[in-house]
Amino acid sequence: MSQAAPGSVLVIDRMGNDKIACAGEMSVMNAQAYGLAGIVVDGAVTDTPQIKELGLPVFAVTSAAVACSLKYRDGEVNVPVQCGGCVVDPGDIVFGNADGMIVCPPDEFEHWLEKAEEADVTEVKWRAHFRAGGHLDDLYPIKEEVEKRLGIRK
């Protein structure tokens, strides 16, 4: 954590170990002291109620009662890691919420941000459509397209 720039997200690849937590309340407090923006663990964390109270965004595959000791502070820093089935490179943009995480190279961030904003605008319209009694079929006239392809007439 001491090697990460303030505002960084620490992404940890536990290499398949989801039985022993590598982060908990004390390590999250340490991350806050270094000014980190969040922690992502492809593995387990512990002290989940305390972590939630601290307010630093922490995402993990699972939780575990057993935590590793501080004597295990080895590992590589500032290298590509596997996380959630994808490669996360140093410098990638990492964003998460209660539904999951996305990762993208910095040079693609603006593109994906525009796509997300477009989707937000579309969802506002869809909500209004559904509240007015509309259906998904109204938005995607799939039935008519299938009938046309099959030569079915009304």
Structural commentary:
The protein starts with 8 loop residues before the first strand and ends with a helix. It has a three-stranded parallel beta sheet with strand order 1-2-3, covered by helices on one side. Strands 4-5 form a two-stranded antiparallel sheet. The protein has two domains: 96 residues, Ribonuclease E inhibitor RraA/RraA-like (Glucose Oxidase, domain 1, 3-Layer(bba) Sandwich), CATH 3.50.30; 40 residues. The protein is elongated and about 70 Å long. It is α/β, with parallel strands linked by helices.
Number-wise, the strands total: 7
Task: Give the ordered list of helices and strands.
Answer: EHEHEEEEEHHH
The span between the termini is 66 Å
Query: What is the subunit arrangement here?
Result: single chain
Shape: elongated
Domains (count): 2
Lateral arrangement of strands in the main beta sheet: 1-2-3
What value does the Rg take, in angstroms? 22 Å
Query: What name does CATH use for the topology of the largest domain?
Result: Glucose Oxidase, domain 1
Helix content: 25-40%
Query: What's the CATH class label of the largest domain?
Result: Alpha Beta
Number of helices: 5
